[in-house]
Inverse folding.
């Protein structure tokens, strides 16, 4: 569902093909990251590198004292043990915890968020309904970034509730844009779909790369050389595909000569049903995302 800038498809807003760099929407705003894991750190790093907020305006929580000290030392942010205390000081609250601890976090924050606060969740599978009910709060954005966000090359699909106003949407764009590209969608199901395709996507790519490296070692390359060849090939192919503007099938045909090495390789890939296996993998990830959402909604309904 890629679209070019300025184009609008049903349920999808304009794809931001460059990181959001406007400081206006975040000037003077404080951000609280509830959970200081890998993705939260990537967001903090992106925001600070782009000078969207100063370190003094960023708060991060976490149960481990060592981790809090590490984040403070590395980024100069304020690290706290209390989720409620951090949220109370912030204009934007980012939920960046594991799905299994989300219910506990929402109990900590329930009834303690002013209605003008914006909540952004990057918790896998957590639906807007479960977040809204669990927090007793209306202005929520649900987002799904992916692993390349750790190097500012991620893509994040997100959707807001109707209570999120225009200014808050711009704020969300700025924060999520710090991870790379961002795409606002109007249908929450598209976030579930993006979770399966782009959110889980690096898993498929890494597995494919690993298999190619193993094949190279089998041929006789050292693992170091095989890894370098594969990494450069995948990286270059992605850049070429984006810059060429051509359909992926056309690009594949360009490098497939009749009776050549690519034709022989593709024959085996098709014989092994690579397309079908990938399609099944993506759909399995989609189903699991929906299951996680249903579980989150059940937990929110079981709150004391």
């Amino acid at each position: 569902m890629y679209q070019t800038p300025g184009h609008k498809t049903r349920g999808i807003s304009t794809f931001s093909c460059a990181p959001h760099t406007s400081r206006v929407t975040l000037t003077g705003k404080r951000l609280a990251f509830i959970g200081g894991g890998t993705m939260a750190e990537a967001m903090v790093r992106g925001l600070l590198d782009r000078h969207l907020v100063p370190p003094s305006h960023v708060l991060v929580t976490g149960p481990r004292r060592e981790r809090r000290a590490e984040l403070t030392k590395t980024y100069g942010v304020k690290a706290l043990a209390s989720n409620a205390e951090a949220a109370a000081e912030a204009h934007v609250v980012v939920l960046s915890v594991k799905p299994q601890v989300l219910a506990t976090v929402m109990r900590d924050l329930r009834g303690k968020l002013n209605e003008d606060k914006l909540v952004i969740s990057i918790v896998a599978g957590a639906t807007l309904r479960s977040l809204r009910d669990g927090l007793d709060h209306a202005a929520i954005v649900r987002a799904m970034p992916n692993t390349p966000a750790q190097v500012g090359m991620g893509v994040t699909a997100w959707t807001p509730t109707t209570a999120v106003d225009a200014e808050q949407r711009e704020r969300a764009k700025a924060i999520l844009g710090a991870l790379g590209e961002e795409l606002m969608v109007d249908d929450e199901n598209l976030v579930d779909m993006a979770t399966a395709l782009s959110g889980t996507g690096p898993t498929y790519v890494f597995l494919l790369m690993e298999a190619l490296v193993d094949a190279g070692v089998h041929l006789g390359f050292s693992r170091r050389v095989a890894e370098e060849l594969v990494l450069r090939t995948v990286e270059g192919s992605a850049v070429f595909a984006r810059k060429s503007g051509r359909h992926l099938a056309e690009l594949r045909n360009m490098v497939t000569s009749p009776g050549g090495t690519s034709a022989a390789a593709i024959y085996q890939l098709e014989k092994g049903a690579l397309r079908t296996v990938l399609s099944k993998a993506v759909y399995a990830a989609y189903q699991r995302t929906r299951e996680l959402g249903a579980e989150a909604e059940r937990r929110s309904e079981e709150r004391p």
In short: Residues 201-272 form a domain with the ProC C-terminal domain-like fold fold (CATH 1.10.3730.10). Confidence is low (pLDDT under 50) at residues 1-10, 14-21.
